Amino acid sequence: MNTEIQGDGSTGESRVSDPITIVIFGASGDLTHRKLIPALFVAYAQGLLPETFTIVGVARRDYDDEIFRGMVADSIKEFSRLPTDEKAVQNFVGHIRYHKGDISNSATYMQMKGKFEDVETYPENRLYYLSIIPSLFEVAVESLQQSGLISPPSSKHWTRVVIEKPFGKDLASAMALNAALLRHLDESQIYRIDHYLGKETVQNILSFRFANAIFEPVFNRSYVDHIQITASETVGMESGRGGYYDEYGAIRDMVTNHILQLLCLVTMEPPGDLSAEAIRNEKVKVLNAAKLDIREDISDAACRGQYGAGISKGNVHIKGYREEDRIDSNSQTETFAAMRLKIDNWRWAGVPIFLRTGKRMARKATEIAVQFKVPPLQLFQHVECEEDVCDITGIKPNTLIFRIQPDEGIFLKVGTKRPGMRFVVEDVNMDFSYSGTWNKSLPEAYERLLLDTLHGDSTLFTRSDEVEAEWRVVQPILENLEKLKPYAYPPNAWGMPEADWLFHGAEGHWRNE
Question: pLDDT tens for residues 68-108?
């Protein structure tokens, strides 16, 4: 075991026993240095990697082993959540190699195959991480297979391939990508990664629902008025993302992976067990039952927006989306999307599901809010107070909030009698927060997910039929973009008023808190 840094055990994972070679395509990119390398270092520092492992970075840059190791060491010192010392870092980077090559050139793979014949240095259990542009996914997988770098599923040595989103641009392209991958790989070898599913609160949704008898009985149409899922960001097109984002937009970038995965976890039926297959089967069932809640027109169920220019609190000009670098000045790409879904099954029939995501919004937050129905007989007056000023209002519904980020936790808003002579009810929060319960740093999402791939646990990864079911949910929007021109909204806002239209017939409004 590595003893340079004592791990806090927060991952709860067992040590990987198989010797492994981890190959990162796109090793010069931001994801590799901010997330992947620090995550692997934490696993190493906690004694969770095997004694024998090699990490190979593949990119076109003119580096060698020593240059790349120096870059990796710098990344660890800057981005690792654990304290580091020079000996630990140097021991880890001793496992690093660099392979210069063009991912689209078959010669790159043949040269790699030659290197990998040294099985003492490059163990035959191999994880390939494709941190590359989506258009190269098929090229990379086909080249790996044709070069003999992929072991069949029946082999005593395993091969696994991790693919970053997006998984297609629409239903047709997602189906084509799945078909292309499955020509060269078995489904069990494909790990479509969604870093949201590595977050502690996301994983806690299932345990909260199915390990506590007091909540699961009320997770249904008889007690729930509606569900809101929000993923809001305060940033715009930083880090040169404009070129990518203008091609994809908020729906493709966030809804057809992160947000619909959150929807699955909060609405799925209890699985027969906690196996990857059982959990993913239930998620697919929910996605197949989910549809846009279209009454007469697509605009009843979906709304798009695009942030304009504005002034920050520090009196600094904020660029509008069309002013950002690498953005078409006439772009119709949405930076905000809201939609109303329904789930046509026994549990959720008639319960509206509201989804919302956007850039340049008022606050960075990702949360699921389950709003319950108000009591049928309103016996009490409800009071809202700000310092010493109080107003009498109608009774407020109980709300259960799963906060994914920031300040991860689970919060239940309930009404209790306000101290004093009058019999009035005021909202209070019953809360569980990770920071208030444990004084340990939470593992990064990639730490958990990378270890899962090394263990061969696909529970938190998306299956091919799951991907296609996600695209079917939003496909009517993609086919009607001309009818859904984006409305303008100012930066540092919660979107635009037109998104409020989606609440027709439902109690409440967007949680802008």
Answer: 999 999 999 999 888 888 899 999 999 999 999 999 999 99
159-164 and 190-193 strand pairing: parallel
Q: Does domain 199-376+440-445+457-503 have CATH number 2.60.120.10?
A: no
Where exactly are the structural domains of the chain? Answer: 20-195, 199-376+440-445+457-503
Identify whether 258 is a catalytic site residue.
Answer: yes
Model pLDDT for residues 139-186, shown as the tens digit of each residue: 999 999 999 999 999 999 999 999 998 899 999 999 999 999 999 999
The DSSP call for residue 160 is: E
Report the alpha-carbon angle 215-218-221, nearest 5.
150
Tell me the C-alpha to C-alpha distance, in Å, between residue 243 and each of 114, 236, 310, 383. Answer: 36, 13, 22, 49
Does residue 128 contact residue 161 with C-beta atoms inside 8 Å? yes
Write b or e for each residue in 484-494: b if 16 or more Cβ atoms lie within 10 A of its Cβ, otherwise e: bebbebbbbbb
**Superfamily of chain region 20-195:** NAD(P)-binding Rossmann-like Domain (3.40.50.720)
**Mean pLDDT for the stretch of residues 418-422:** 56
- DSSP line for 92-142: HHTTEEEEE--TT-HHHHHHHHHHHT-TTTS-S-EEEEE-S-GGGHHHHHH
In whole angstroms, what separates CA 323 from the centre of its chain? 28
Characterise 433 by phi-psi region: left (phi > 0), alpha (psi -120 to 50), beta (else): beta
Indicate the burial class of 160 (C-beta count within 10 angstroms; 0-12, 13-18, 19 or more).
buried
The pTM (predicted TM-score) of the whole model is: 0.89
Options 258, 317, 455, 509, the catalytic residue: 258
